[in-house]
Input
Amino acid sequence: MVQNIIDVGNLSKSFDISSKEPGLKGTIKHFFRRKTKRLKVIKDISFKIKEGEIVGFLGANGAGKTTILKMLCGLIYPSEGSILVSGYLPFRRKENFLKNITLIMGQKQQLIWDLPPIESFYLNASIYDLDKCEAKKRIKKLSEMLEIDEELFIPVRKLSLGQRMKSELLAALIHEPNILFLDEPTLGLDINAQRNLRKFLQKYNEETNATICLTSHYMKDITSLCKRVICVQEGAISYDGKLDLLLKKLSPVKEILIVCRSEEDAIKLENSGFSVKNKIKNEITIQIENDSITSSLKTILNNFDIEDLFINEPPIDEIIGKVLIKKDYEI
Amino acid sequence: MLEYRVEIALWAISGIIPFFMLNIWTNNNLNESINISDIMLSRYFLCAFFVRQFSVVWVVFSFEEDSLMGKVSPYLIQPLNPFFRYFAQHLAEQITRFPFALIIAVFFFIFNPESIWIPNLGIFLLSIVSTFLSFLIQFLIQSIVACLCFWTEKASSIERLLFIPTLFLSGLLAPVVSFPAYVKSWIYLTPFPYLIDFPANLLSGNETNISGGLSMQILWIFLLFPFFKKIWSEGTKKYTAMGS
Output
């Protein structure tokens, strides 16, 4: 039986936020009497993640996804509740725990700006107590997986964003962590670089059975990597389960464009009881529930003279967008 | 690479305050009032320049910037206290600026040949130890102030408050011996005279209480270190990982 590697119970996090009115008057007021209010950004969330799972955290900007990741990796203290990651309390930042995890933030870098990435790799290798020979072996293996070679010897400031991101990944994975926290790792990358990064993460997960927690606004990252998603709305979990099921729930019908041989056939089909979205001459678009799609298509093909038909999957961004835009969207 | 070489040279040149002070002291014959000869005074300020070169600390500014920009976050999840990075950075920069400091000393001796002296090996080694201890004290004081970033976000403003006593009481502008006796007795209870005055006097061959000075340096390190550990541990609990 696969063990839970992350166990979160009734976790909450509050921040003290101060606000300032605009202008000189507001500044003076702010200086003498600062108004602060306590904002609960994470509200009693609970979930468990199994070893080797890839879980995507979905949510609008400011929903609390990154705060959850920061608490999971021990960067910030939780206000209430419990977190256990790989058997450790993350915020205690014990050496063995830190050697087991990594955090990659798309916008932030840990590579030394003026030096080639290889220098940062060796520095990280010594921080994680790797001997030079082992470090060399791991750098070689990871650079092959990431398809970087000459870039290792060029100062970081001269690398492209994609090359830099690959180097960041290598630096973050040199100690072969079991748990990866990735906060928008493909941010700003072009389509090819995004695809390569996803391929790499998939391969890393398959080869090492590492657990990956991922946040991303690119739905392709989520759909190609994560079987399970956790949706976060205003600091609370609104859905935790399989991505397929979420999509089914959010988009229970499929649109089918049917091209009939004649307009009469289209009229006949329009009046046959199917839910019609629109009709233009001999082309008719109907909506069929996912569960009855096979039987409905069988009926249509047997009873009508059909020239062609197309099944349109609604774009996933649009479906997930419903969760992100509507704050009170019930899943 | 040129800009880096120029930057390193500028680092070294930026520490020449002691030479300006030497000029002020000798031109106004101020040294007569404290019974120090011109030669001993010029050696003192040259040594103050060297001690300053190898003990200057700016960790509060680096940490504040890294903390506000969210750069501390990746360091915090590594099994190494981020202050070790800054410590290593300071040591590396001290080594880098050594040749430039040496060139400045050669120029100093060309213009003041009467100040040339060779300290005995024992005193020289003790001066290196004392300068390193001075660096440790300053690093710990600034690290403690830097940790206030977890509460105030603007710890460098607090550091500026410390800059004034450091400037006046450390021996950078004037040897501590020039202060009135009752002021001196108070100054020697603070960590400031052990930052520059004590190691500079030791290296220049001025009369100084070697064992007392070294003991005070060690004592201050022992007092400051647990304080740093405590403030670090409390501060990281307050960390909000802003900017990342």
Q: What stands out?
A: The first strand of chain A starts at residue 4 and ends at 19. The first helix of chain A runs from residue 23 to 32.
